[in-house]
Amino acid sequence: GAGAEAAAVDWRKCDTVAKILASCPQQCLSLEDYYRLVCPQILDLLHIQDKLTVRQFQRVATTTLLTMAKEHPQLAEKHLLQPLLAPLLRCSETAELEVEDLSAGTVLVTEAELGSCVEDVLKVYVVGNDSSSLLLGSLQSVLGVVFSLYSFAKQNASYLRSPCQEILLWFLEKSEREVSLAVLEGFAGLNSSVHALHPRCRFRTGSEGGASIAVEETISDEDEALYQKVSSEQRHVESLVELLSHCQKSGLAGDFFIRCLKALTCVAAEDEADSNSAVVPGGSLLELEQYHAGQRRKLLVLQLVATLCESVSDTVFTDIAQVQEFVAATLQRACVSPARGPGAAVEAQTLAMAMGLVAAMLSGAVQLQSGDFTVLKRLVPLLEELSRTYPEPLTQELAADLRIAICTHGAFSPGTVGAAADGVLGKKPGAGAQSPAGIPSGAPSPGGSRAPPRHGCGSPSAPMERSEEQSVSHEPGTAGPMSAPCVDSPAPAGLQELLVSAYDPQPPGRAAALRCLSSLITQRDPEALRLQEKLLQVLGSHHGIALLSSEYPERILPVLLARYGCPARDTEDTAAAVTRMKLGEVLMRVTRALGDMVFKHREPLVQAFLRGARDPDGALRASSLSNLGELCQRLGFQLGSIVQEVTSCLTAIARTDPEAEVRRAAVHVVVLLLRGLSEKATEVLRDVLRDLYRLLKHVVVAEPDSATVLHAQLALEELDAVMRRVLFPPQTLEKKIVVLP
């Protein structure tokens, strides 16, 4: 209809039709027979593509489904919900028998089927917006697979990311708070409240921007399996944190943060117990498995809290009571295990955040009422215990001052509280404010001169900036001691001290300095740019080099090429190959950062990857060829005079390399060349086109690896299409009108 009234009438018609469909007619003898006949047709209504009627049909289908679910939940679940969710249930970890019996490479769910399923779930659950227990329960059975798909789509820029996110957020919003928190823990791998993707199933990028699900072989190499598992867990944690960033207004993100901190407190208590009763080497296999499962859970909790601290600010908390609960959980954990062991960095970081939040509230960031002080007074016993037992003296002093400020309702607020509030709020302390160490807060500290604005990694107070010198047990980098340079450019002396701290024998101090140096690079600090060579020596890790390469690609590229061509000595062959593969990834990041300027460095980059393609390690050869293919795409396939060298290398590898993975990579580069050049192939590759054709024919005839043969067949089809367009150009009929003089 043209107006709102007509549209409302139209919707009422749709609802009326839905009620008729949901009602079993009198002439039908069996209700289940009616459902069995009608339900597949109702699901088909969701897939109608006609633009004029699609909304009406989807409205009818959704309303009919919801009505049936209310009236006859068991029949609706059997004939509607299970068929609707079948593609997701098929690859869940509960589908043990079906998946285990399938061979590797079998496609369980096609791209079209998976995309249609996700869209149907969005239409029925989110658009229908009926939060009945039946619908929430049925959706929870596939939430683990939907979350894995969301994480995959986030990494691969798939259109499925948005609908998956809407589905997950809808469930978290409509479910009871305890159920939502349990599901979030399930996403992180802390419990089994959701059924994850089957371990033998993997998502594959689809040709239409979606994804498919296929069965993969079990990885026999234990190191590779562990790497894949850790990488997957890291991606899931990052995706979970991003999902929580959309749940801050409802308070769910804050509640989950608090739950994780309480779990971290339990981890600290368990560590104390484990130190008293170590695992007996001769224990049973069951005991050993339980021990390893417990250790894995501890690491997951630490990783989750660390990521939340870095990515979520204090705005995650929606009221004073929630802040109090967060601070109480943090203080309790600090009293149990005061910043030592593998979780010391996370503990110090959250302690800094918690004490800084309390100081900020007491300093006027929030207008506190008398009832708010009643809530805050629950922290007094914990602050008193912390002031007596915590090993770091400045933290003791701040805890004592916070306790006094709370008990006096803010009437007496020592200078340490104001300095801590300035640290959290990102303000520069006044010159007159004195720190406990007797140094004016406005004076430059060893790490820098300003307090950081980030709530997640900032120092809770100016006094904390001196704690690195006074206590080794306190974590320098994350609680704030060396975090101050992370905001503004420090004086050269401050930067020099950071460089010295990067060689600190204590891992926490070293990590703090490296984190701050990385932040300076990201902010393109002029002093850091001037000391770029020194920073390259200090940031020896691949992550640090990658940061430098992203910010100063042209300066770092020669150094990277030299390292890629000459692996470190006195290392095992496998370790050297892994190092060079990581350097290859950094080189590709540099080429992306260079953009069109990559043409200037075309020959050294191509030659570096060609040398890597002749390395004794097969994985490195395959990695180099993969990088070569992407580089050719970045260059627009304009290889210039080195095209002969590239094709000769590809031909030799495809014919003679002993490993199928490497031969497959070589043929794939040929496919990329032909596909990218298209009709220009006859011009750019005119001197080597015949050799490439003979190579592809040889691969099709003699290659034992089926995937490599498929690549070769695709390349031949591409070459055939190119030659047909060149030899038989399409004739166009034109009508010309000539005006005679």
From TrEMBL:
Residues 428-488 are annotated as: Disordered. Residues 3-250 form the TANGO6 HEAT repeat domain. Pfam families: ARM_TANGO6, RTP1_C1, RTP1_C2. InterPro entries: ARM-like, ARM-type_fold, HEAT_TANGO6, Rtp1_C1, Rtp1_C2, TANGO6/Rtp1. Gene3D superfamilies: Leucine-rich Repeat Variant. GO terms for biological process: protein secretion. Residues 430-451 have a biased composition (Low complexity). SUPFAM superfamilies: ARM repeat. Residues 495-597, 688-721 form the RNA polymerase II assembly factor Rtp1 C-terminal domain. Belongs to the Tango6 family. This is TNG6 protein. It comes from Fregetta grallaria.
